[in-house]
Amino acid sequence: MKNNLSNIKKAEKILNMSDCIAIPTETVYGLAGNAYSDRACKKIYKLKKRPKNNPLIIHYLDSQILKKDCIINNDFIKLYKKFCPGPITFVLDLKKNSKISKIATNNKKTLAVRFPKHPITRSLLKRLNFPLAAPSANLSSKVSAVSSDHVKEDFGKKIRFVLEGGKSSIGLESTIIDIRNKPKILRLGGLEISSIQRVLNKKIIINNNPLKIFSPGQFKLHYSPGIPIRLNVKKIKKDEAYILIKKMKISKPNYYFLSQNGNLREAAKNLYSTLRKIKKNNYKSIAVCKIPNKGLGKTINDRLIRASKF
Ligand code: AMP
Ligand code: MG
Question: What's the CATH number where 115 sits?
């Protein structure tokens, strides 16, 4: 705990200087900077090699602080009460007098906001007098980082500090919902749509039409480990790594299991680290078994389909 506090203080100091650090969250690690500072936000784009038209998600401690920057509504309040802090990102209208950097929003009049649950990042947010702009802490279009080692693999010494928080407990990015008018899912994520549906009790549009990209998280090429991926594979080719949803009786060095018994939460948590491990072990291609297309399985499939567009 003492160790955590000194790390949090170090993180605070660097952020106050408008520099960037990596922070742990329950979804994936974030590359964080002061969301009110153009300098910090510019640095995030530069480090990630992120296209400027892909705005950043802003991380807040709570909805009271958010109200300084955004207009909220009843649907937001319902979902906030049920799921926050947690793996859901809301797209809201920005207030005219908001101090959020225009670099972070790419001059949009809307803002994507989230309330992370990880206790270390919450302790950090409590000490800051600004929210944190924090996209996933990986190079643009590549696999997200779910541990501090992954962040270091991607950025090395280019990031001044990685705040240690262990392995991300969910391991998939947040679900993004545009909540301004009719609720619209812009990105599948760590919170299941059925849970959102139950709380709002109204029709939710799922905007997964790749021809009408509103949120660049919908871009097809994304989450790529940098080698080809084949999906729904029953029979693998020679020298391929094989990802299986659950542990099999027979185990071979090229078999990678996402879970013990097919539990989708466990599989989600292990997905990105497995993709990274396979790449590190020098395989040149990956085959993946059929993943059930329900609950978090839908998000896993969404990421694998995008990753397979390599
Ligand atoms: P990342 O943090 O790297 O997972 O990416 C953040 C995601 O949030 C990207 O897909 C962005 O396009 C999306 N996003 C950020 N701001 C907005 C916004 N104002 N409207 C819609 N999507 C957004
Ligand atoms: Mg990302």
Answer: 3.90.870.10
